[in-house]
Write a structure and sequence with these properties.
The structure holds 2 protein chains of 2 kinds. Chain A has helices at about 35-45, 75-85, 115-125, 150-160, and strands at about 1-10, 10-15, 15-30, 55-60, 65-70, 95-105, 135-140, 140-145, 160-165. By secondary structure, chain A is α+β, with helices and mostly antiparallel strands. Chain A folds into 2 domains: about 10-20 and about 100-165, 2-Layer Sandwich (VC0802-like); about 25-100, ACT domain (Alpha-Beta Plaits, 2-Layer Sandwich), CATH 3.30.70. Chain A has a 6-stranded antiparallel sheet with strand order 4-5-3-6-8-7. A two-stranded parallel ribbon of chain A has the order 2-9. By secondary structure, chain B is of the alpha+beta class. Chain B is about 25% helix and about 40% strand. Chain B contains 4 helices and 10 strands, in the order E-E-E-H-E-E-H-E-H-E-E-H-E-E. The model of chain B has no long low-confidence stretch (mean pLDDT about 90). The chains are: A alpha+beta, B alpha+beta. At the A-B interface, strand 1, helix 1, strand 4, strand 5 and helix 3 of A face strand 3, helix 1, strand 4, strand 5 and strand 6 of B.
């Protein structure tokens, strides 16, 4: 069964932006062979109450994943130690930590089913010249990671092209 | 290893994946790429991207029905030449809720890694952890995950029975 929806919106409707500050973005690569071991080490961190705000991964040409993990800065050391245990066993493993980053995330009606949402986001941010560090769009949600000091500016730019409740 | 209770596992229809590997001029690449897709009314149900200085790395998935059209569009773009890779048949597996719990993430990577089921992409949302794998192994991936993640009694991984598509964007009446 297929349902076709038509949206008449001067600006794309959202259910509101959520902003989070005080985060660290940890970037590392995992080979396919390291996946299960890394999973096990991350599972062990659960006992310490470590939580994530966002996890992203991109295929490395069939050789594994380039990973980005967004966490409260208080967990940075634990995550780095955990990842180091896994990637240090193979040559070339690098962990890159970007401290003091912020997150804006939001969702809207049927975002997962509509074209043009990502285009609106990336066009607005490019015009506004805001440095985006990472982005994920899945399950009707948009997650955008910025340097923390550019978070308010980024929110302003996005609010010009997306409608917020009550605006 | 004690199973973690979850509420559901959702499987997608057949998709294909497009990877942009460490391409230069990140800001314009992404903007240009998304503009091409939007102007051709192509939805991107999954996108995961990161920046490395002036380079961008991106994976995204789109409906398998759009594969030929997208390949034609991308092949016609000289600016993307040489850095685009296609994976012909992929699917999304979404586990929810993850509750920001690293154990759900860890067990998902552990289970699929141990079973040598490829993970082509990964992205979380507020509730769901979404993994991309080969479409032909989606059911197997869901079975493997259930060795460590426990669904409510009687519940099975599900595929949506209907699909919503958008016919037009009209900015103003």
């Amino acid at each position: 069964m297929e349902t076709i929806a038509v949206y008449w919106e001067p600006r794309i409707k959202t259910y509101g932006f959520t902003k989070v500050r005080g985060l660290s973005l940890i970037k590392f690569g995992l080979s396919s062979a390291q996946m299960s071991e890394a999973g096990l080490e991350l599972w062990r961190l659960g006992d310490a109450g470590v939580e994530f705000y966002l996890i992203l991964g991109q295929d490395l040409g069939g050789q594994g994943l380039s990973m980005q993990m967004l966490i409260r800065d208080q967990w940075e050391q634990k995550i780095v130690e955990c990842v180091e245990q896994v990637i240090s066993r193979e040559p070339g493993g690098v962990i890159n930590v970007i401290p003091s980053v912020g997150l804006i995330h939001f969702y809207g009606p049927h975002f997962g089913d509509r074209y043009g949402i990502a285009d609106t986001v990336f066009d607005a941010l490019a015009k506004g010249d805001v440095p985006l560090l990472a982005a994920g769009c899945s399950a009707s949600s948009i997650y955008l990671v910025f340097p923390e000091e550019r978070l308010s500016e980024s929110e302003k730019i996005l609010s010009e092209v997306f409608e917020l409740p009550g605006s | 290893m004690k199973k973690i209770r979850i509420e559901g596992i959702k499987l997608s229809e057949e998709l294909f994946q497009l990877n942009i590997l460490r391409h230069f001029h990140s800001k314009d690449t992404l903007r240009h790429f998304c503009r091409i897709l939007a102007s051709n009314k192509i939805n991107i149900p999954f996108l995961s991207t990161a920046y490395f200085g002036e380079e961008v790395q991106l994976v995204c998935c789109m409906s398998a029905e759009q594969k030929a059209k997208v390949q034609d569009l991308i092949n016609a773009e000289a600016s993307l030449g040489g850095c685009v890779e296609f994976i012909p048949s992929t699917g999304l597996l979404s586990v929810y809720p993850h509750k920001s719990d690293v154990r759900v993430l860890g067990l998902s990577l552990f289970a699929l890694g141990r079973a040598r089921i490829p993970i082509h992409g990964l992205a979380s949302s507020l509730s769901a952890l979404t993994l991309v794998t080969d479409y032909g192994r989606l059911d197997e991936a869901a079975e493997v995950l259930q060795e460590y993640l426990e669904l409510p009694p009687g519940q099975r991984p599900f595929r949506p029975q209907f699909r919503i598509t958008q016919s037009e964007i009209v900015k103003g009446r």
